[in-house]
Amino acid sequence: MTTARDIMTPDATCARESDTVHDAAVTPARKGVGALPSCGEDDRLKGMIADRDIFVKVLAEGKDPRALHVGELAGGGVVTIGADDDVAEILRTMSEHRVRRLPVIDGHELVGIVAQADVARALPNPSAGELVEALSYD
């Protein structure tokens, strides 16, 4: 059985809720990823901040990314997956919640991120195509 732990990108870097959006944007650019988990000062996961959030909710609205904090942008709860959950559960969760990235939790600790591409690489082609279709929307 393939689990989230098997296919995740480990060592996810958290943006702190107190970081400016500008500072948080540097990490995804450096790491070549499209989103970062947002964590509180207690290191607990609070949300996700994606490149799209920065473009749509900050830049397009004329807000200053140096004045806006991550905690103001990345909220509203976050969908996660357990580290030992299998690929079928990952597919179900991604499809049901229409998300392309899932933070992977072991207990209360963030241990990695499973992205749509990670799942697609781990699945036979027909299943990967079904995932892409389920997550593609207008």
Folded structure, characterized:
- This protein is of the alpha/beta class.
- The protein has one domain (4-135): CBS-domain (Roll).
- It is 41% helix and 22% strand.
- It is built from 7 helices and 7 strands.
- A hairpin with a 5-residue loop joins strand 3 and strand 4 (45-50).
Features:
138 residues; CBS-domain; 7 helices; four-stranded mixed beta sheet; three-stranded mixed beta sheet; alpha/beta
Would you identify the CATH H-level superfamily?
CBS-domain
Q: How would you name the oligomeric state of the polypeptide chains in this document? A: single chain
Strand order of the largest sheet: 1-7-6-5
CATH 2nd-level architecture: Roll
The radius of gyration is: 15 Å
**What count of structural domains?**
1
Integer average pLDDT: 86
Low-confidence stretches: none
* CATH domain class: Alpha Beta
* Silhouette: globular
| Major β-sheet annotation | 4 strands, mixed
What's the structural blueprint in terms of helices and strands?
Elements: H1 4-7, E1 9-10, E2 15-16, H2 21-31, E3 35-39, E4 45-50, H3 51-59, H4 70-73, E5 81-82, H5 87-97, E6 101-106, E7 109-115, H6 116-122, H7 125-135
Parallel strand pairs: 2-3, 5-6
Antiparallel strand pairs: 1-7, 3-4, 6-7
Helix pairs in contact: 6-7
What is the gist of this entry?
41% of the residues lie in helices and 22% in strands. The chain is of the alpha/beta class.
